[in-house]
Specification:
It is a single chain. The protein is mainly beta. Among the domains are: 3-37 and 451-713, Rossmann fold (3-Layer(aba) Sandwich), CATH 3.40.50.1820; 42-157, 6 Propeller (Neuraminidase). The chain is 14% helix and 38% strand. Helix 6 (554-568) crosses helix 7 (585-596). It has eleven helices and 44 strands. It starts with 10 loop residues before the first strand and ends with a helix. The strands form ten sheets. A nine-stranded mixed β-sheet has the order 1-37-38-40-39-41-42-43-44, with helices on both faces.
Length: 714
Amino acid sequence: MKNSFFILTFLSICSTASAQLKDINLPQIWEDYKFYPKMVPGFNFMEDGKHYSVQKSSEIVQYDLTSGAQTSIIYSAKDINFSSYTFSADENKIVLETDREQIYRRSSKANFYVWDRKSEKLTPVSKDGKQRYATLDTKGNKIAFVRGNNLFYKEVNSAKEVQVTKDGVQNKIINGATDWVYEEEFAMSSAFVWSPEGTKIAFLRFDETAVKEFTYTTYDNELYPIYNTFKYPKAGEVNSDVSVHIYDLATKKTTQVQVKGDKDQYIPRIKWINDDQLCVTRLNRHQNDLTLLIANPKNGKTTVLLHEENKYFIDVHDNLTFLEKDEFIWTSDDDGYNHIYVYNMKGKKVRQLTKGNFDVIRFYGLNKKTKELYFQAAAESAMHRGIYSTSLAGGEMKALHTETGVNKAQFSSTFEYYVNTYSNATTPPSYKVYETKKNKLVRTIEDNKGLNNQLKEYNMGNHTFFEFMNPDSIVLNGWMIKPADFDPNKKYPVFMYVYGGPGRQTVMDEWGGQNYMWFQMLAQKGYIVVSVDNRGTDARGEAFRKSTYMNLGGLETQDQIDVAKYFASKPFVDSERIGIFGWSFGGYLSTSCLAKAADVFKMAIAVAPVINWKWYDTIYTERFMRTPSENNKGYEDNSPINFAGQIRGKYLLVHGMADDNVHFQNAAEMARALIAKNIPFEEAYYPNKNHGIYGGYTRSHLYNKMTNFVLDNL
């Protein structure tokens, strides 16, 4: 391959450390968490926009945002040990969560209580079993919740519960909560919403009777293990039949919304416009045809508000914002990049509020007083994030951030202030309060000065960003860490880190956390560590992000192989010692690279990898691949299980045995395929651990295993 295909541009970030500096070790990273920065939790902003609350042990404490001074103790628990809390709209009541039991990534059940700040009365939500998603209406008088797959509500000060639905059955019917695949892929677990005046409750009903079951096993020192069975629709299989319903508290009647469309479709969002209008998002199974419907709560009839089609797929988001003048805000890839638009209530585009060759990443909201809206965008480059504002009437966008790196904002409820979380590749996060109107720094909450000074004591490698042009003349972003004592006349092994999945990035100018310190430790041991964002990753427009459509993993794998070949050609790299590591989609790619380029990679570590796309869920897989019957070639060509016999290098396969997301089935089937071909490999399986593989000494054990594998085989 000709070198003219490639560009390598180095941007030096830190200077080479001296020989007297200390080395990093694994116990410091994964047991002592010595390099873990001080974090500022998400803010519970009060409605006045000038205060926020924080849970401290058994108390909820209020602070002044501008000074950081404690102003009051809002609540002090005496009889319960609560883990989280939410305020009513008027802040007169607080919902307290206790005895929380995690179900999946976003779902849980708990015992909830309501604290009345005026009467100082603590009332249990229910005494008949743990509840899910206990939520007050806007006036704080009634509370709704899910129990036993049924929806309930009650007056806060009454013991009498009103059961809205009665057909809920485990692994059959769910009312007011979502099934597993909606929770994981549409990022929603609660599936009911109070109307603005508290007169109605809209909810989703999932009939998952026909969905096939999956079982994973956990172990607890008992005579027999525990079998956990739940509904999990794999690619091409039957999904839940989802319907929308509206319960009227006055008439006690439930009306089904006439969603129409295809029988096999998704309802990923419901949102009230007012008490007489419910907006329902309808998405076809291919996820490339989206409709916003307005439903009449009285008869369930619907009219079309907005219809959007895409030749690839449409991402579901929460940016829909209804305005006072019969308009609404919507974000879309309509012009090739993700931008913010204003539409009228006839679904016609009124104006485009952001424009340019960059993606809006996150919509923070609208200040209704000033008519200014705020958002995060990758306007400087795909590796950076800035905070911006623009007028609802249209006009130029204004940058609020002052430092290049990754900026993330949390705005107060009135948008008068915001907290900016900032970091870059070699600087841990800082948290600063700004006054929005003048964009003036008010105070620094935390700057992690202690950790910054501590890092100077260690033998940190030189971290640089670079650009790489692949054989298709597409420039990809990457970073590299070289040993602090790097000698261009020596040859070094290269250890590549990859995620590479749709809409994600590893190459960002932000603090990389614990993994970053592990990579620095490997650099101290003589490795060059590299990561490159392949095609299909985020913040570079629709064409780049959706280029892998119907061929998920194909271009991504090729890009990573081309990166490895390029480094193999460098005079300072030992071409016989190139390895790759990834987790989840990254584990899939590391396996695919080793299977398809045995002549390039000496070793690969795959943690929780998808091995066959047919074994992953409907919503995620079909979004990018359609169904196996529609795209059999795409599935077969890009599933590592079909190429297991080609693996020649050293391979470490890691999986959590209680992974409800990427099932242990993937690791078991890959192991079976390798054994059938008499191909040696190493494996590490973690009982009772999910996709994250954490808890206790688990991470320390895992990273010790991976470190030794790297040292022994690269």
